[in-house]
Design brief:
about 10% strand, globular
């Protein structure tokens, strides 16, 4: 009986996903379950991204149950020595609660807004810490703010952000249910002397990423999502160890390991195309949709409803 119900549910789910042709992103994506790797995608960086500079190690303390001396079990002569309880190790640290997460992220955002660790801090209009649900199961991480983000101080609010919103809705989520951030927190410009120019965007370089790394790592550790979705090759190669090209990374989950903080529990990371790349190459939307469906399958999401 249970097996029949599961089979009917799986069949209904496949039918439902296939029928979502009214959504712009899904229509362009032409839903597919094949985890194909696109060749000729984003090119690998000329050199691997460096680790965070020495002396910049960041420690995040998570609440943990500590046994006080008065609570330590006493030795019993009848039953033999009782086992003394030890505090949980770093591997079993407890995630923060909502209030703690909110406070930590707010404090970090204020630090980011005044950061001048790299030259980007001198040319930005506004730093862009990130925004979203502090208890999100899914966190999207891009490479850096663009023209519109620099003016509003919010991530993914331009054309690429509008497409990302549609991708999130296609998954059956809302922007308010996820967290969105970038590796670099300030606008990297090809011509920093003229921030008013359109088309003045570039990817952050390795030194800029190294300076900003501690911020995104702390955000991930505090939010502790179940899945991080790296948008584009720059973000993917910054967060996935020994990463090569985006095409080589797509189609599978990786265990996320951070340089400067300990995670309270394991987190999986998946790489897919940046929305800006999908605007330039609409044919890649099918493959991006395939990547998003992998996360949907793990979370039991059924996608956008008509």
């Amino acid at each position: 009986m249970a097996n029949d119900s599961l089979r009917r549910l799986a069949s209904d789910l496949k039918t439902f996903l296939a029928a979502q042709d009214e959504d712009e992103f899904i229509t362009a994506a032409a839903p597919s379950r094949a985890a194909a790797v696109v060749s000729g995608g984003e090119q690998p960086a000329s050199k691997p991204l460096p680790k965070m500079p020495e002396g910049e190690t960041l420690t995040v303390e998570f609440p943990r149950a500590v046994v006080s001396p008065r609570q330590t079990p006493q030795t019993s002569s009848a039953a033999g020595p009782a086992a003394i309880q030890q505090p949980p190790s770093a591997a079993t640290q407890l995630p923060m609660n909502t209030a703690q997460k909110t406070a930590e992220l707010a404090q970090l955002a204020e630090t980011i807004k005044t950061c001048t660790r790299c030259p980007l801090g001198a040319t930005r209009l506004n730093a862009v810490p990130g925004e979203g649900n502090v208890n999100a199961d899914v966190m999207f991480v891009g490479e850096g703010p663009g023209f519109d983000e620099d003016r509003q101080g919010r991530p993914f609010v331009g054309r690429a952000g509008q497409l990302l919103d549609k991708m999130i809705v296609a998954m059956g989520l809302t922007r308010e249910q996820v967290f969105i951030a970038n590796i670099a927190k300030c606008h990297p410009m090809t011509d920093p002397l003229h921030p008013e120019k359109h088309g003045n965007d570039r990817a952050p370089n390795a030194e800029e990423i190294a300076c900003c790394r501690k911020y995104i790592e702390k955000q991930i550790a505090v939010i502790c999502p179940k899945y991080v979705i790296a948008l584009g090759g720059v973000a993917a190669k910054a967060l996935i160890a020994d990463a090569k090209s985006l095409g080589a990374l797509r189609g599978k989950f990786y265990d996320l390991h951070l340089d400067s903080v300990s995670l309270p529990r394991p987190i999986k990371i998946l790489a897919t195309f940046h929305p800006a790349a999908l605007l330039r190459n609409p044919g890649w939307k099918k493959d991006a949709w395939t990547d998003l469906q992998m996360v949907m399958d793990q979370l039991g999401l059924k996608g956008a409803r008509k």
